[in-house]
Amino acid sequence: MGTIQIENMSYKYDQMVDNLFDSLNLQIDESWKLGLIGRNGRGKTTLMKILLGKLPYQGKIVSNLNFYYYPQDVTDKNRPTVEIVKELTDLEDYDLWKIEVELDKLQAKTDILEQDFSTLSPGEQTKVLLAILFIDDYGFQLIDEPTNHLDIEGRKVVADYLKSKQGFIVISHDKTFLNEVIDHVISINRQNIDIYKGNFDVWEQEKSRQDASQLEEKEQLQKDISRLHETAVKRENWSNQSEKQKNKTGLQKVNLDKGFISHKAAKMMKKAKTVSKRVDSEIEKKQGLLKNIEIEEPIKLNYQAVSHPKNLVVVDNLELVHDELKTPVTSFKVPINQVVSLVGRNGIGKTTIFKQILGIKQPFKQNGELKIANNIKISYLAQEDELTGEIRQLAEERKIDPEMIFSNLRKLGFERNLFDQPVESMSQGQRRKVALAISLSQEANLYLWDEPLNFLDVITRQQIVDAIKKQHPTMLLIDHDKDLIDEISDQKIILEN
Ligand SMILES: Nc1ncnc2c1ncn2[C@@H]1O[C@H](COP(=O)(O)OP(=O)(O)OP(=O)(O)O)[C@@H](O)[C@H]1O
Ligand SMILES: [Mg+2]
């Protein structure tokens, strides 16, 4: 069995002050199905790029495996998919059956190879790129967030596919998916990096057990500390007093030997100092450990409830048509203080309906009815937000107080030193958090959130769920995370042809 040995590896990006990885040591077996987890911006993608040899790290990485990365860069998408496959794999025509075998396992039609890549659904694109990764039997795959653009069915298929493979690392924030797929976990914590044997649930249980015992230890420690401090103070007082007494000549009792008192006082003093030193180092050690506990601060939407009309959106037999594309005929209402979810496979037209509600110009002809309440403020979180530039600038353009966005970002676990960085140099999840923080900060009567959870870590996900459950905003939601939909929706609208 081969291994990947990471020895004393350190890395930081140029503009960083501290190392992202600091003398990291890890040993990974080539047969493991590894889930790489950790909050946004911890360095998951960076670790993969380091393994690929794309970043100039310090230290040593020993392995004789061929690493492959998903998602690959596809330069020109307006070409038949087969061209892209050939470019990314060096496969000859007579070898193309290899990719067809993988596509078949992924339940994708092989004739998509003839289609232009740009015309494939996001799910199909994902499957093609994954199939490419697995044609080398001796490869070790580094798969960076494959589920983001997959619908529920697609996630299941890809989970089953990966489960049948051996030896890869996958990054994902989808617990259900990870539980299906992985048998080991690498967790990038606040203070260290851990490896566990087991799936996500096993890791989560272990982590909360550790957190609980650390908190308990902390309480015990704090008691110990104050007791030790008290004793130390008492000792110190005693030795000080003895010194004083020793110097008060005349009043000294005969049986008190000056030398003895002095010696004893010095000993006490020394002991007090040692104890306090030990206490200090113990406190430091414990506090270091406690920093591994992830903090989950509540977030809040800047939601302004309106009292009427009863429904902010009314959709009646709506159908949007353009060439062969047609959304299913749909009817629903979005009542005040309710979360309504649109559920349906990739490419069925959910985002198209969103854009029509927002009045964004589209080439679709509208049949049926669509009514939006007058003068309401809508906060829209787009599926793909191509934000660029500095946060302050983005806030000003949208007439939002930047401090409000910063405060929301802090709650979402953002480091302060990122505030002045251009959004394009942030991690995927950090970019998504900027978009989310903008939406949270905007004053709104209605939220249109298109796949809010994409790229976000599990803690942020929980923060979102808690806020929505608490505030009951009026919201129209699209997401492929089944647990989220079940947890927060008051109504589910199923779209299907
Ligand atoms: N090209 C870059 N230049 C400067 N800093 C970067 C660059 N790419 C990433 N970073 C920073 O390095 C840190 C790690 O980023 P990385 O993309 O590896 O995180 P991640 O764990 O994959 O996060 P996510 O879950 O959001 O994808 C982040 O703080 C990010 O802002
Ligand atoms: Mg990443």
From TrEMBL:
Residues 4-215, 307-497 form the ABC transporter domain. The lineage of its organism: Bacteria, Bacillati, Bacillota, Bacilli, Lactobacillales. PROSITE patterns: ABC_TRANSPORTER_1, ABC_TRANSPORTER_2. It holds the Pfam family ABC_tran. InterPro entries: AAA+_ATPase, ABC_transporter-like_ATP-bd, ABC_transporter-like_CS, ABCF_ATPase, P-loop_NTPase. This is Ribosomal protection-like ABC-F family protein. CDD domains: ABCF_EF-3. The keyword Nucleotide-binding applies. Keywords: ATP-binding, Nucleotide-binding. The gene is abc-f.
